[in-house]
Backbone:
């Protein structure tokens, strides 16, 4: 791809880019003949400068890189903190469904890295940020930047109120979010086995791994578009694998950061907190450069027998969790009469658990101390037959389904909404089996 004319002009004048004023509408990609543009601003000075790439929201189907409410509030604090910024547009849905917009942002990362010298930026200090749908996109960019794709590697991720679990969001709403529907080209908002699989594969929380860069989450407690509890759950999942993660909570903050400036009093402290956190991560890049990089070691194959065992919900009471036998059967410890079936896919290290009639996908949470009474009532009164989210009060779920991802490096399983399950010591498992098999 050719170097943009704006960069060539700047090079001709000074040899490096010093953009006191922002530069607009630089083409970074042309997928399918549809040009995609970015804006940028580089601090004045010697450089090279660290970078934050910002991705706008808008339900995957609208929005713009210059949005005054969703983008602009964070740009001046970045510039004043000596951090270069780039804001980008991407192909919008429904004409361009998932994963097109994720691929566009990946192209932007690669483009900015490729021309780092011309931009006078440090290619090893590139962070990414996004809000709402843009937060989902940048999370997916981060989890897809596997160790074998160094051209996509990021120094840090800042997610503003990001929908990180599209399946759980659909269950919360009792239907697929209309914006998600358009983003994936679904013809119906009804959740079924097929749409669950598609949404699971597009949910960042399903791909959490120890290889991820540090995360900063920013979320308001009064957000009704992206449920605030999704951020603590996301943080729990990252913490469980040792990924550095911090959460900035905006008390009473609603959706969209521009609204926080209008609160009484204005909630603006997060801006400097974001800048300070980014500079701390960029400093760590310098420290890491002094230490030889550890070679990437592919995880060892995981067998069904390895996954089988007694698993405890680390935030639940002592009797919470599941027992998986090697013969694809098991028990829910939180509902001892519930015999479950499970299977394991070694290719993705994912475990799929089915609860029979009379139980449901929410059973593992029923004893969690973190669950509110209103949500416990929803569990008790919910019905979730296969192929729909029809709810009939007073009827227990007919069929349940649940997905976990197993992480050999930590020997833990993380559920599709961030619940962490830890393997119980073998002696405890033996004691449990002895009790379970004891004759009355």
Residues:
């Amino acid at each position: 791809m050719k170097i943009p004319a704006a960069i060539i002009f700047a090079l001709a004048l000074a040899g490096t880019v010093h953009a006191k004023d922002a530069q607009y509408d630089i083409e970074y990609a042309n997928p399918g003949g549809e040009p995609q543009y970015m804006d940028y601003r580089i601090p004045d000075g010697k450089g090279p400068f660290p970078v934050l790439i910002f991705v706008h929201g808008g339900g995957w189907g609208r929005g713009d890189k210059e949005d005054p409410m969703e983008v602009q509030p964070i740009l001046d604090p970045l510039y004043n903190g000596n951090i270069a910024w780039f804001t980008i547009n991407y192909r919008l849905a429904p004409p361009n469904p998932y994963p097109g917009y994720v691929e566009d942002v990946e192209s932007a990362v690669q483009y900015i890295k490729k021309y780092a010298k011309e931009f006078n930026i440090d290619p090893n200090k590139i962070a990414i940020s996004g809000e709402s749908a843009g937060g989902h996109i940048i999370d997916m960019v981060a989890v897809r930047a596997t160790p074998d794709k160094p051209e996509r590697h990021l120094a840090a991720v800042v997610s503003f109120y990001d929908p990180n679990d599209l399946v759980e969001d659909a269950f919360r709403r009792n239907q697929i979010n209309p914006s998600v529907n358009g983003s994936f080209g679904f013809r119906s908002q009804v959740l079924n086995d097929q749409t669950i699989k598609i949404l699971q594969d597009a949910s960042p929380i399903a791909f959490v791994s120890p290889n991820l860069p540090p995360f900063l989450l920013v979320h308001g407690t009064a957000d009704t578009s992206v449920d605030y509890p999704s951020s603590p759950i996301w943080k729990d999942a990252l913490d469980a694998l040792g990924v550095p993660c911090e959460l900035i909570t905006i008390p009473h903050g609603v959706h969209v950061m521009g609204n926080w400036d209008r609160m009484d009093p204005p909630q603006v402290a997060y801006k400097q907190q974001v800048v300070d956190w980014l500079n701390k991560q960029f400093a760590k890049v310098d420290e890491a450069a002094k230490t030889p990089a550890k070679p990437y070691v592919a995880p060892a194959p995981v067998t069904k027998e390895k996954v089988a065992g007694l698993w405890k919900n680390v935030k639940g009471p002592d009797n919470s969790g599941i027992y998986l036998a090697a013969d694809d059967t098991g028990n829910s410890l939180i509902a001892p009469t519930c015999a479950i079936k499970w299977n394991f896919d070694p290719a993705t290290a994912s475990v799929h658990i089915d609860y029979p009639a009379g139980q449901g996908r929410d059973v593992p949470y029923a004893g969690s101390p973190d669950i509110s009474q209103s949500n416990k009532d929803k569990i008790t009164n919910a019905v979730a037959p296969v192929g729909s989210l029809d709810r009939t009060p007073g009827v227990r779920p007919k069929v349940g389904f649940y997905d976990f991802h197993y992480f050999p490096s930590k020997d833990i399983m993380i559920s599709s909404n961030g619940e962490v399950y830890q393997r119980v010591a073998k002696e405890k498992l033996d004691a449990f089996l002895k009790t379970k098999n004891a004759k009355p």
Observations:
- The first strand starts at residue 23 and ends at 29.
- The chain is about 30% helix and 20% strand.
- Residues 269-289 form the longest helix (21 residues).
- The radius of gyration is 23 Å.
